[in-house]
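hiii so um. not sure if this is the right channel but i have a protein structure encoded as tokens and i wanna go backwards to a sequence. like what aa goes where. can anyone help
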């Protein structure tokens, strides 16, 4: 079966109104995407498009009178001239969308002897540490610089026998990696129920023994959690707000804190929020991962 896809470009002020207009004129689904590679910083999972330049796509049944739809949309008050001129309609052939998504992922070598592998692909090195991942609906495939850098930092630590906290676990990629790299136990937490489910599923996919992983919503934390390594790959704003809670989890002066999801221009802001010395452990494509130890604060 074929579909008709109508695409146009607009700004943040008009995006919601245009989305409503597409739905009113018969769109079965509407997708909003960043049209200028602009990061979002309004919470972990914003519910509306906040990009200044937004690309909107509406999916219509193949028998839609697309010319009449285009004409009706051109009369909508939310469409300025530039948006109207950007409108394009294309035939979209039906596909096996699950396979279409899967073909874009391939095994990724984090370090020699440590691979991140999509769960449907045979690992290149059977005797390596192979983290099998299916992100499902949760954030965290390992391809984004923030996650990739966290994986490399974790791989460079001696996690043998350690207790680790993964705060904002997403797909569970960092939690499972820590366990495969020798951690004794990991506490993974996230506000998104889909993330908690994905973390459990990925731990089972990697054969993690029962009892080594605990998965909790942050509301279930007691405030007495103690870890040898705490990793949080979220965003600079939440990292600053969480500073007291994350620091309280560091069990000893040698305990390590790893923070990611930080843009280069946000480094000073994050440093000022923490009572310990944070150093840049790695940076890539404008993103930074920072690392420090509780003992560096002088406590």
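sure thing!! here u go:
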């Amino acid at each position: 079966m074929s579909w008709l896809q109508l695409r146009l470009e607009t700004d943040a002020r008009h995006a919601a109104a245009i989305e409503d207009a597409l739905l009113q004129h018969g769109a079965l689904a509407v997708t909003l995407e960043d049209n200028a590679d602009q990061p979002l910083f309004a919470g972990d999972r914003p519910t509306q498009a906040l990009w200044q330049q937004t690309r909107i796509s509406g999916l219509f049944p193949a028998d839609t009178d697309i010319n009449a739809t285009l004409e009706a949309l051109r009369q909508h008050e939310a469409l300025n001239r530039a948006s109207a001129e950007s409108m394009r309609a294309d035939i979209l052939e039906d596909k096996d969308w699950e396979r279409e998504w899967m073909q874009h992922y391939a095994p990724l070598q984090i370090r020699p002897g440590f691979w991140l592998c999509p769960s449907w692909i045979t690992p290149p090195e059977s005797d390596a540490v192979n983290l099998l991942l299916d992100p499902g609906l949760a954030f965290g495939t390992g391809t984004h610089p923030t996650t990739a850098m966290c994986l490399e930092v974790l791989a460079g630590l001696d996690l043998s026998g350690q207790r680790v906290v993964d705060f904002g676990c997403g797909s569970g990629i960092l939690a499972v990696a820590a366990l495969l790299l020798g951690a004794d136990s990991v506490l993974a937490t996230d506000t998104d129920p889909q993330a908690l489910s994905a973390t459990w599923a990925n731990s089972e996919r990697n054969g993690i023994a029962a009892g080594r992983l605990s998965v909790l919503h942050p509301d279930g934390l007691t405030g007495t959690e103690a870890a040898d390594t705490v990793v949080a790959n979220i965003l600079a704003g939440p990292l600053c707000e969480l500073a007291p809670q994350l620091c309280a989890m560091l069990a000893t002066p040698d305990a390590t804190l790893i923070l990611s999801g930080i843009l280069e221009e946000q480094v000073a802001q994050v440093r000022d929020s923490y009572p310990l010395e944070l150093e840049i452990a790695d940076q890539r494509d404008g993103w930074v991962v920072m690392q420090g130890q509780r003992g560096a604060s002088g406590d």
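oh and Confidence is low (pLDDT under 50) at residues 37-50.
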